[in-house]
Each structure stands twice: as structure tokens, then as C-alpha cells.
Design a protein that fits this description.
single chain, alpha/beta, Rossmann fold, eight-stranded mixed β-sheet, two-stranded antiparallel sheet, 16% strand, globular
């Protein structure tokens, strides 16, 4: 048995392999056998010679594991403030009711700073004699603050602005990033080397991961063998639990649903579906603000989800017949086996998360500014099947910038009972010790 873990880095001026080495160094010691050796080998799956494959030899509970990094930062070279302005303008000029609650304090602070700068500028122009030393000092502070914000915006937010804005000037970059990520995922599948793949996306990397999973699933979902009999009890169970999760009064829980998803993944593999991705893990994901970043508002986001443009967990499903009131995740495909009619239930193109589990780790935002400003819960937005894990251990959960960059650092075991750490939650979601069930 062999499994692959693909890590997609987030925004910023990342260096090749820096994210992956840090990730593996912290994740492996937290697993069952911290004495296993780690090897750096050539990466024949990626399209760049800057990357290596880090391989952890097998242990009693963990299959041999290859760690890959999907590196995309080099496509964002040449980002200017002009790339950021259309995106920032669209966010700042929208109604406060269309701004997610988590970001309203930051949105209001941005407007206060902008208004203060405009007021000082107009004062200096209209009544220059009224400008005293205090006003000049305030203007200088605002100018320095603006310069600092500009530098941070270009180096950090510029990547997000260019990727998340489907403007004509950004289309080529978006296409290149998705194409290379898709090529890596395809290569891992067709190599015949792996039994399981886990995709981990940090920050903007989680959006990229969501995109390439959506694209590749649409290409593989209807591939299958044509057996004499195709019993699919696991598919029926997932559809049943998915409907129960969508009901507010349901007693179903996410853990039970994820167990059924794993069973369905195994069932799909037995039927010849070549999909290898068992888990999608997001860390500090901006998808928490999807109604702001991927749509014009909550209504537009919901429309795109209902039209199967953005896959949900559990899937929204489709009505199976004219008189049916039950939405299902599949369609029936008929074929012939030894001249006898047979049929199989095939998952829809938007049923990505019927057999792929989605775990999301985030640091909750406190007082509007403390915590992770980028990440947040995904279950309210992408469905009740997403397993949200809120981190509540460690002092760094109160630091806005450091919190977002330290999801795989720190302690795996919480200091106090009942606490949750980022690294421990990440290791649980990865489930690298998969030898028993895999």
C-alpha cells in the first residue's frame, strides 16, 4: 500500500519546498511512529525541477507515504497595485449587509482609515493655514500606514486578488495555475503507484485545491466497470445520511457521515471508478468568505451552488424522476453484460463530496480582529457534511497574522482537556495511519 499527500501553499512570496519541508517536519513526529526515516527523492510528477518528493517509509500503522508540494507562486510574479484595486473596490463598495459577519469589523476599519486620509488631504488643500504640527504628524502616520498596507497588499493579497478575480488580465494566470495543479493530480492517478491521495490546501491553496478537485472529478465521475451485478448499499447509505444532515432536526452527525463517505469511496473503487482522493483538508481557508470572494452576495452564491457550479458537502442532489420529491446524488446508466441488460448508479458531476471527505481547520475570529482573519467555518456555506474544527488552544490563536501561518506548528496534544490544537486536528484529518482500513 502507498498513499500520497499533496500540499498546496497559500499566498505570499513562497519558496519551493519551504512549505512542504515545514509541513512534513511537524506532521510526521505527531504520528504513531516518529522513528521512521524520511527520504528526499526526485519528483517525477511535477512540471518543475525545483521540487522534490519527500518519502516516509512505512510503519506498522502507516503505509509508505509520499509528500508532494504543488507550487504555483512563480506564476504571480509582476503583481502590481493595479491588479489589487478592482478586487478591493468591489469589496469596499458593496453593501455592509453583503459583507460576511466575520469581516465587517475589518471592512469598517478600512473605511474609517480611508475617510480619515481623505479628510486630512482636503483640509490641507482647502485650508492650508489650519494645518498645524499635529495634523501634519497625523498625515505622515497615515501616509506611512498606507505605504505599509500597499506593500503588504501587493506581496500577500495580490495573489488572492489575481486568482479570485476573473478579469481578462487574470484569466491566463488562473488557467495556468489550475492546469498545472490538474496535471499533477492526473499524474498521481494514472501512475498506478498510489492507493490513496489526500489533498491539503492552506489559505488560497484551499481555493485552488477546491477548483482542481472539481475539474478532475467532472472528468472521472462516470468511469466504471460493467459488472454482472453492481450492488451499491454504501451509496444508498450516504444519500440517506446526507438528507438527514440537511434536516435541522436530524440526529445524524458529521462523524457518521464521514464514515459512510469512506465506505462509499471503497465501494466506488471496487466498481472501477479511478478516483483516489479520500480526503480534502483545508487550513485557514478563505472559502469561509465565499459569498464575498466567489460571488456578488449570498443569493448569487446560493444560485451557483444550486446550479451545480460549486460542489457542496453533502451534494445538493437532483430529482430522480418527474414525480420524485427526493434528490439523489446519482443517475442510472444502463449497459449490456453477456447480452443481458444491466445497470449501475453513477455519481453526478457535482457529487464530488459524496465519496470525498472534507475537513476544515480554522482559528475562530474574536472581537472582529483577533484570530484568523482569512479562515473560518465552512459548514454554514458549503454544507453540513463539512467537518469544521475550531482551534481553541495556544496563545497564537489571538494573533491575527501569526495564527494564519502556523496551522501545522505548535503542539499536537492540547495543554488542557477539552482543548483543540491546530496540529492535532490536522493529523486527525490526514489520517496517515491508514494501513488497517486501506
Amino acid at each position: 500500500m502507498r498513499q500520497a499527500v499533496v500540499v498546496i501553499h497559500g499566498i505570499g512570496e513562497q519558496r519551493p519546498m519551504s512549505t512542504l519541508r515545514s509541513f512534513v517536519a511537524h506532521v510526521l513526529p505527531a504520528s504513531e511512529d516518529n522513528r521512521s526515516r524520511l527520504f528526499s527523492k526526485p519528483d517525477s510528477m511535477s512540471q518543475t525541477f525545483e521540487l522534490r518528493r519527500l518519502t516516509a517509509e512505512l510503519s506498522r500503522r502507516r503505509p509508505a507515504t509520499d509528500f508532494y508540494e504543488y507550487y504555483w507562486a512563480h506564476h504571480m510574479e509582476g503583481t502590481k497595485l493595479r491588479h489589487l484595486w478592482p478586487w478591493a473596490r468591489a469589496i469596499l463598495l458593496r453593501s455592509p449587509t453583503n459583507v460576511p459577519k466575520q469581516l465587517r469589523a475589518l471592512w469598517l476599519l478600512s473605511w474609517l482609515l480611508a475617510c480619515a486620509a481623505i479628510a486630512l488631504f482636503l483640509t490641507g488643500r482647502i485650508a492650508p493655514d489650519a494645518v498645524d504640527s499635529k495634523t501634519s504628524s497625523a498625515a505622515l502616520v497615515l501616509a506611512l500606514l498606507f505605504a505599509a498596507v500597499q506593500a503588504v497588499a501587493i506581496n500577500w493579497l495580490g495573489d488572492a486578488a489575481r486568482y479570485l478575480s476573473p478579469l481578462p488580465g487574470n484569466i491566463a494566470v488562473r488557467h495556468k495555475i489550475r492546469s498545472e495543479g490538474l496535471a499533477l493530480l492526473k499524474e498521481l492517478h494514472v501512475s498506478g503507484r498510489y492507493d490513496r491521495i489526500v489533498l491539503v490546501g492552506h489559505s488560497l491553496g484551499s481555493v485552488i485545491g477546491y477548483d482542481i478537485l472539481t475539474i478532475y472529478w467532472s472528468q472521472l465521475h462516470d468511469s466504471h466497470r460493467k459488472p454482472d451485478r453492481a450492488p451499491q448499499p454504501c451509496l444508498s447509505e450516504v444519500e440517506k445520511l446526507g438528507r438527514e444532515l440537511d434536516e435541522a432536526s436530524s440526529g445524524a452527525d458529521v462523524a457518521t457521515f464521514q464514515e459512510a463517505q469512506r465506505a462509499l469511496w471503497s465501494e466506488q473503487r471496487r466498481l472501477g471508478v479511478p478516483w483516489l482522493v479520500t480526503d480534502f483538508v483545508t487550513l485557514g481557508s478563505p472559502l469561509a468568505h465565499a459569498e464575498l470572494l466567489l460571488a456578488t452576495g449570498p443569493r448569487d452564491l446560493r444560485t451557483r451552488q444550486e446550479q451545480s457550479e460549486l460542489p457542496m458537502c453533502p451534494p445538493i442532489g437532483q430529482l430522480s424522476g418527474r414525480n420524485s420529491t427526493v434528490k439523489r446524488y446519482h443517475r442510472v446508466v444502463k449497459y449490456s453484460f453477456k447480452n443481458q441488460p444491466r445497470s449501475i448508479r453513477v455519481l453526478h458531476h457535482d457529487a464530488l463530496f459524496a465519496a470525498t471527505r472534507w475537513s476544515n481547520v480554522y482559528v475562530p475570529l474574536r472581537f472582529g480582529l483577533l484570530g484568523d482573519l482569512v479562515g473560518g467555518p465552512l459548514r454554514p456555506i458549503f454544507g453540513s457534511g463539512v467537518r469544521d474544527v475550531a482551534v481553541n488552544d495556544g496563545l497564537l490563536r489571538f494573533a491575527p497574522v501569526l495564527t494564519h501561518t502556523r496551522y501545522w506548528r505548535g503542539r499536537a496534544v492540547p495543554k488542557k482537556e477539552g482543548r483543540v490544537t491546530a496540529l492535532g486536528s490536522l493529523c486527525n484529518a490526514l489520517d496517515l495511519e491508514a494501513a488497517k482500513w486501506l
